Amino acid sequence: MAASLAQTIFTIMSFFRYTGILCLSLTMLACQPEKAETAKPQSAADETAESITAPVFTGRTLDGATVSSRDLAGKAYIVNFFASWCPPCRAEMPDMIALQEEYEEKGFTFIGITVDEDITKARDFVRDYGINFPVVVADKQILDAYSPFVQGGLSSIPTSFVIGVNGNLSSVLVGAQSKMAFDGLIREAIGADQQ
């Protein structure tokens, strides 16, 4: 009887262990981009490249303020779609916070767009990480505005859209980015490399 009970407990523990591993694997798989890419900066010599006007959006931040693309006119910014439960999103956030501090006075900002369904968890994430840029709650209008600029639509997070001071979309980045990659794209967007 004791051997049977021990075998039953072992079987149950094995089931939970494998179920936990499966859940963790599925969560990690859900956050992975279909294909991680870093957009290539448009060279100054490529005068024939077509300009793409950045998507127009208006949204509410987690603290109730309104943020719109009209308010950002003349400013370089990166719109970053993320979720608090996404490991790659969490990994790139400290670099984004540091770069916000470095470039905010030079006319740059990140705009976070949370796709979290649980707004309380999104607020906790912003507070715990000390996010120092506006975080907007994703809605259908914002998702519809940005989806056409990603092959297959906006289906992976993190995904970032780089907008220059001229109001044009210069890069779309699918997948987590390094601090160095973001830094180069920010410098290009604010025109620091041309000065």
Could you walk me through the main structural features you see in this protein, from its secondary elements to its overall organization?
The protein has 5 helices and 7 strands, in the order αβββαβαβαββα. It folds into 2 domains: 1-31; 58-194, 3-Layer(aba) Sandwich (Glutaredoxin), CATH 3.40.30.10. The chain is elongated and about 75 Å long. β1 (58-60) and β2 form a beta hairpin. A 5-stranded mixed sheet has the order 5-4-3-6-7, covered by helices on one side. It has helices at 2-31, 87-103, 119-129, 140-146, 179-190, and strands at 58-60, 66-68, 76-82, 108-114, 135-137, 159-163, 169-174. The termini are far apart. With 195 residues, the protein is of the alpha/beta class. α2 (87-103) packs across α5 (179-190).
Main traits of this protein?
2 domains; 5-stranded mixed sheet; 195 residues; two-stranded antiparallel ribbon; 5 helices; alpha/beta; Glutaredoxin
